[in-house]
Predict the 3D structure of the following.
Amino acid sequence: MTAGKSDSDTGFREFNVGFDDDGIRLDRWFKRHLPETSFTTVAMWARTGQLRVDGARATPGDRIAAGQMLRVPPPEADKAAADVDKPRRVRERVILSDEETELAQSMVIHKDFQAFVLNKPPGLATQGGTKTTQHVDGLLDGLQYDNEGRPKLVHRLDKDTSGALLVARTSRAAAFFAKAFSGRTARKVYWALVVDVPSIEDGMIELPIAKQPGTGGEKMHVDEAEGAPARTRYRVIERAGNRAAWVELQPFTGRTHQLRVHMAAIGHPIVGDGKYGGAAAFLTGGISRKMHLHARRIKVDHPDGGSIDVTAELPTHFAESLKQLGFEEKLGDDLVLDEKTAPTREQMKSRAKAHAKSVRKDRKGERRGRGVVEEKATGKPAPKTGAPRTGAGSKFGAPRSGPRVEGAKPAGRGRPGGAGKPGPRSGPGTR
């Protein structure tokens, strides 16, 4: 979230929705970023038209998207509303069991006055949900120590994804890190095992992602027409013949399940990811059926100057799989983190507009073509309305083209840069 700016005349504050808040309810946004504002106050602002999203009236239950602008009444209005609200209970510090406190503290791999970096184990959710009682957020009271404020999550990892997770120790640090993630200056490096070997060893995947209809938002999919822009860079670290590849992944956007969706979309699902890869995501020969996706490294500017740059050790099942496939862990760490920067928000918006314009142009041409055919056949002008379009490039039909993967380095024979092992099959998706 971008820090709030106030209108000098009205005192209203403006906040830019960050990518970590993409898709959440508006009332949840207030709970995260303006916790001193009660739900009653937010609802009152909505009823009186003072709460706006991109200039339109909003309600607490509305879903918000990254890049949108929130307009919020001035702090004085918040205080005045709080005066008439019922007294609010102050959140009491949760007393964890000795085992829970030990688990929380055992995850810490970096600690300073402003932040923790945790090495989250696979199988532990980042936040709570239906039937999820134990999660990282619920364990943060075990890391409060003598601080007055409770540590705060600033980004998330999937339940079955392990690795580096940044936690802010102060509100100032939380706001600073949130801006780093929304502005895409924070760098995250993931390691993954994928099925088969990509034909391009260093590529950029650019495929828009949206929630898959009928899944209740629990599953994402590539949606060329209405998906949000998403970019992932991958590099092949090493390969096991044509059976599997060990890859480094760098997300340049923060979409839900982005890495998993992108790798499955180009025909190389992450090993153990049955949700997106189905039965093809599991290898035989004793390779663990757990997810092989690990947040290996995080690098982000520090609120007090300098930077945080932390590497998280692999979970046991991932390390054993690397060893079983004959991979050397050192090879992954030897890759240099280049200084390629992610596109700015303005660049992403420009690309999204260009894509939308292209889709509209295709549909317009399709309607014209259909009208000409109907007019020739009947001698009458074609009607302007009709059945849903089902042609190529339409919302309801087949996609206009396959997955886009940019890259200039096709994988050679054997390991990248080496020789001695057979080369990959003809392209992505072969088995």
